[in-house]
Write a structure and sequence with these properties.
3 domains, LysR-type_TF_proteobact-type, D-Maltodextrin-Binding Protein, domain 2, alpha+beta, 15 strands, WH-like_DNA-bd_sf, 5-stranded mixed sheet, Arc Repressor Mutant, subunit A, DNA-binding transcription factor activity
Length: 309
Amino acid sequence: MDRFNAMRVFTRIVELGGFAKAADSLQLPRASVTILIKQLEAHLGVQLLQRTTRQVSPTPDGTAYYQRCVQLLSDLEETEAVFSTRRQNPRGTLSVDMPSGIGRLIVIPALPAFTARYPQIELDIGLNDRPVDLIREGVDCVLRGGLALDESLVARPLALMDQLTLASPAYLERMGMPVDLDDLARHHMVEYVSSASGKRFGLEFLIDGQVRPFDLPKRVAVNSSDGYFAACEAGYGLIQAPHYHAMRQLTEGCLVEVLPHWPVPKMALTALYPPHRQLSLRVRVFVDWLVELCATSGTGLQRQPLGLG
């Protein structure tokens, strides 16, 4: 029995809650996964997993063993990276998740530079705004805008994204262009609802260094960034969003910036990953590349100053 391989199989069963899911995740025959766990339990002389018709969960001994396995496997990966050519050439599958807008507009267009630098890393990318359980879903790293909600994860700041206030030309023709914040009293907004926390977001402006909320009347609330933009383009009211996400709509005239002299608070972009992935070379080089990417001009994360000429 390959004990390290058995540990990897065991940790995936615990994280995914089932033998079949672990086998699919590791691309192993399901029978092989069952045999490995039986051999591991026989070798240790303890029952590691409690099996029922509905789920698989670790026993108390299994929970303690899982915690040690996670640390040992992380140490093994780091040791191999230090003493082998994999330090310069990390390999394997890296599972990442990010908002669809960041993925489509920022990360994926620049991704050929990363895959050229690290040709032996295979990327499994999820694009969505829903909350992700990194451990249970086997995700190595997520990108999220706004405040990091899970304090159990390691957070790596990437950028502070400029935001702006937007409306559709049809909406402005109907309701008029607001000139100052007092004009907002006769306007509507599209409400954004976080799929992760359920928190509802209206409009916010920076006034004398303080964030001041403006909760305007609304007829539509959405929980995805694409839906948020679609509702704005359909004329349901004002929205506030990162500059990068609005570049196409601004260029094509689908949306118009309003109240440009009233700044909107910046939005933090953060990479998050579980503590036991902190030493993973694949995660480290990907996050380092993201830091480089976000620091370059032309990403749209920060607006370029207007020229005076």
